[in-house]
Amino acid sequence: MDSFKALQIKKTDGGQVAEWGQIGLSDLSEGDVVVRVSHTTINYKDGLALTGKAPIVRKWPLVPGIDFAGTVESSEHPDFKAGDDVVLNGWGVGEGHDGGYSQIARVKGDWLIKRPAGFTPAETMAIGTAGYTAMLCVLALERNQIKPGDGPILVTGAAGGVGSVAVSVLAKLGYEVVASTGRSSEEAFLKDLGAASIMDRAELSERGKPLGKERWAGAIDVAGSHTLANALATTKYGGCVAACGLAQGFDLPATVMPFILRGVTLAGVDSVMAPKDKRIEAWSRLAEDLDKAKLAELTVKRSLDDVLEIAPELIAGKVRGRVVLEVA
Q1: Within this chain, do residues 135 and 261 fall inside the same structural domain, yes or no?
Q2: Do 14 and 110 sit in the same domain of this protein?
Q3: CATH number of the domain that residue 93 is part of
């Protein structure tokens, strides 16, 4: 394909602008594998990049999109050949390396994995970085010996991408899930995913006490700031909080009290640079522990052409679950 359609974020004197256009392979970042993209998605980080709400973009111009699924067109990497179905999550793609909001992507083969057996390309993007991050958080709880019988698990931002997948997976594994959300209208949706109870995020979003009543055995937090501090302060003795986001803020106004008086563990979860073995483990567990029917319920399909319309809605917290973007 001599030219193909792509979205590029460009720097101007007045800030940044996102524009659709025709580009060629020479316009893309270097890489040893060329992929024809069939599906992508939009994560919180993509929304920040597209709206300019945070300095995500590190290359100008840039094709955004931190996830994609597609088929290898050509490869100079020994692990891949033309015709292979592949998935990419993270590795700085869509930040400092051209990403998935394009009909064609070129990346390093070391960043790719073969599409996991049992998932369609659309399903891998319904999961995307958000769902794969949720699974990494569940694995972090398990590694810290948090079992279903130990008590409830708090999930913040429960109606969002990470949260909705986390609720579904934890419920299927037998955990009692407390879903925190700022959208009371999503109570039925979250309970259908498996949440045992719903709490208003306002209970956690303001400055709290250094140590509160023990409420949950563990938590998965996407918010940071006061929400994370309060989650830690109310986690049971020996519990674990897996932190993977900063939707409320990147600060942590907490004390050492939960750590030194209750032995609480704060487990940081990074999905961007996670090594391939962790990625494969997470995807393997998703194939086992994620209910595909529930995945379908929390997913909507849109055209990639709609992504600029979706981005501000996502940042405003108006998007439920996961959005699969189909590439024409």
Answers
A1: yes
A2: yes
A3: 3.90.180.10
CATH number at residue 213: 3.40.50.720
Same domain for 100 and 138: no
Q: Which residues have a Cβ under 8 Å from the Cβ of 14 and sit 6 or more positions away?
A: none
pLDDT of residue 92: 96
Q: pTM here?
A: 0.91
From CA 310, how far away is CA 126, in angstroms rounded? 15
Query: How far is it, in rounded angstroms, from Cα 115 to Cα 196?
Result: 33
* Residue 10 identity: K
pLDDT in tens, 24-33: 999 999 999 9
Per-residue confidence (pLDDT) for residue 169, from 0 to 100: 97
Per DSSP, the three-state class of 181 is strand
Which residues have C-beta within 8 Å of that of residue 149, sequence separation ≥ 6? none
DSSP 131: H
Indicate the Cα dihedral angle 94, 96, 98, 99, nearest 10°: -20
Q: Are 160 and 222 in contact (CB under 8 A)?
A: yes
Domain span at residue 173 reads 129-268
Report the candidate in 326, 275, 248 with the shortest Cα–Cα distance to residue 89: 275
184 pLDDT more than 90: no
